[in-house]
Write a structure and sequence with these properties.
eight-stranded antiparallel β-sheet, about 35% strand
Length: about 625
């Protein structure tokens, strides 16, 4: 290792080390693939010709690109072109081998994306979302000069999937007004219009709503079977729905010992549609199975303990998957036993494994993932501790590699991550618990884990940092006001800070989610939005606050953050604010390093700890 390289702290090496996403491949040209990588220092789209082994950078924009799709014949790379991370834009396309970009579907104004489906015959369905029009879907047939609008509704929805022959379209929608539980409509595509073929709605007219979601049509010509996810048993499970006959095939997913898989289960078709690739997620970890439709046999695929961040079944029978653990960096692996794709350059330094902790909370047992700095065993404490709260809220922390928590560990902090009520992977009741008392419910679970961490001797109660991004940033600001004596500092990235103003300015898809969570708009239930807004409790904040925000953020817009900051200033509360020219986070590696360096320096300075982020831990 060179002297210059060794001087770079491990936490920065983890951010700078190149990463790759799971490659997606063209349905009729499996040798052509697409992935996202940060190998240039910014996350961009890459084309990979697997036959020749050549890799080509497709996009090159100052603030990066992540949304892209290959046409089924592998001839075109479609990518979404927004402005500096504002998520509002149009689809463009570029030849797989390279060439100039062109507007992919002329005639469509910029919008938020609500999905894209590319047919094998050249049929295109584009989903759009705007504040003015709600959700609209647009069909362009081969040879047509302009697309035709085929769907419109004020509530949020989007493109599900096109059937293999391009005659049927599945639409995921929330026309019933419940954004937590979608329904599916399947329509037949005519020349310029559509005809409804089938509906699957587990919400309308039911006391206990259940969601359904499109997982994809069978990849066989003329096959009308649609793989869907459903919550009829109180968790996500797959089933097969023949949209032509209405027949539903429940899949009895049991392992080799005859045991039902706990947790949430998803699936995708394997080529030929005789088997399914099953993805099982349970208690912050995941694994893969193959399911035979002929005999109902479920066979576990050999994956290490940790988290599968995506998987795809190849035509040759192998399965490729993106895997990592909290200690081990990610790589694209194959069930054939090889690493299929690893980004160029050095592998990022390892981190430390997680420990599982279960704590009794007011709504049931709360699962937390705990990491101690290298060299610290249970009983070594109390330690300065960072509670890093995940976003979503319909998301969860997992046993997967993450450069952010690893950086705090390198600087001597213990890290605790809480899968509070609202998190996925613990059943529908846990996820659906967020109603009306939004934010306050999650904080109850976080408080229970905090109490355990202090009583256990892990966490120093005088050096407890609450931090998170997006929904985690929102819970950070809310927690500093609702639980003012519990935390020593707060570090919030791209947060909701003033819920009334956030609702007014945010993208339509999030307005729909908020109406579901709160039971109405701020005009309908103002008291609920007020009770859940960090701005309501800003006078009670007793510790220094650090806030970072993207000025183009459509999810947690800048005006509502400015409102909160103005109140901090008026009240004379110690705070620091960092604004950057991007959206809901940054895709630029050096910007991410800068932001985390500022956060670590802020925390160490206010906790009276020596040194700073520039050189890592002492």
């Amino acid at each position: 290792m060179s002297e210059e390289k060794s001087a770079v702290p491990a936490w920065e090496q983890r951010f700078r080390a190149a990463r790759v996403s799971l490659p997606d491949w063209a349905e009729d040209a499996p040798g052509r693939a697409l992935y996202v990588s940060n190998s240039t220092g910014t996350y961009e789209v890459y084309a990979w010709d697997r036959a020749t082994g050549t890799h080509r950078q497709v996009t090159d924009r100052p603030n990066g690109t992540t949304d892209a799709e290959l046409s089924p014949d592998g001839a075109w790379v479609w990518w979404f072109d927004d402005h500096d991370g504002d998520e509002f834009g149009v689809w463009r396309r570029q030849p797989f081998a390279g060439g100039p970009d062109e507007e992919a579907v002329p005639g469509l104004a910029p919008s938020y994306s609500a999905g894209l489906a590319l047919g094998r015959d050249g049929t295109v369905v584009v989903g759009r979302s705007t504040d003015e029009d709600g959700t609209t879907l647009h069909l362009r047939r081969p040879g047509a000069a302009e697309p035709v609008e085929i769907y419109r509704h004020e509530e949020y929805g989007g493109v599900g999937d096109l059937s293999h022959d391009g005659t049927l379209l599945a639409i995921d929608h929330t026309e019933h007004g419940d954004a937590m539980h979608s329904a599916i409509r399947v329509v037949r595509l005519g020349g310029d219009g559509v005809e409804t073929v089938a509906e699957l709605d587990e919400v309308t007219g039911r006391d206990e709503p259940r969601g359904v979601a499109c997982l994809g049509f069978a990849p066989v010509e003329g096959d009308t079977r649609l793989l869907v996810a459903h919550q009829r048993t109180g968790r996500w499970e797959p089933m097969i729905w023949d949209v032509a006959t209405g027949a539903e095939t429940v899949l009895p997913l049991r392992d080799e010992q005859g045991r039902e898989l706990p947790g949430d289960v998803s699936a995708q078709w394997r080529p030929g549609a005789g088997e399914l690739l099953v993805e099982h997620e349970y208690e912050a970890r995941s694994e893969l199975f193959s399911y035979s439709l002929a005999d109902g046999r479920l066979t576990r695929l050999d994956t290490p303990r940790g988290t599968v961040g995506g998987a795809t079944a190849r035509p040759d029978g192998t399965v490729e998957y993106l895997w990592s653990s909290a200690a081990e960096p990610s790589a694209v692996r194959s069930t054939a036993g090889a690493v299929v794709l690893r980004a160029p350059g050095p592998v990022p330094p390892r981190s430390v494994p997680v420990e599982d902790v279960w704590v009794d909370g007011p709504g049931g047992r709360v699962h937390a993932l705990v990491q101690r700095p290298a060299g610290h065993a249970p009983g070594d404490g109390p330690l300065p501790t960072v509670f890093e709260i995940h976003g979503g809220p319909t998301h969860h922390d997992s046993d997967s590699f993450a450069a952010g928590p690893a950086a705090w560990l390198d600087h001597g902090f213990a890290v605790v991550r809480v899968n509070y009520r609202g998190s996925t992977g613990y059943g529908q009741a846990w996820t659906d618990a967020l109603h009306e008392r939004v934010g306050l419910i999650e904080l109850e679970d976080i408080a229970a884990v905090r109490e355990w961490a202090v009583a256990d001797g892990l966490a120093d109660p005088q050096r407890l940092v609450l931090t998170g991004g997006s929904w985690g940033g929102y819970l950070t600001l809310l927690g500093l006001g609702v639980q003012p004596e519990s935390w020593s500092l707060g570090v919030a990235a791209v947060p909701v800070a003033d819920y009334h103003a956030a609702y007014a300015d945010e993208m339509e898809a999030l307005k729909s989610l908020d109406r579901t969570l709160f039971g109405g708009t701020p005009e309908d239930v103002p008291e609920r939005f007020t009770a859940s807004s960090p701005l309501t409790y800003v006078e009670r904040v007793r510790v220094p606050v650090y806030i970072s925000a993207g000025v183009n953020d459509p999810r947690c817009p800048i005006r509502q953050i400015d409102n909160y900051v103005e109140e901090l200033e008026r009240l004379g509360k110690p705070h620091e604010v960092y604004r950057y020219d991007a959206g809901h986070g940054s895709l630029v590696v050096e910007e991410r390093i800068k932001q985390l360096r500022l956060e670590i320096d802020f925390v160490r300075r206010h906790l009276g700890m020596p040194g700073g982020a520039a050189g890592g831990a002492e």
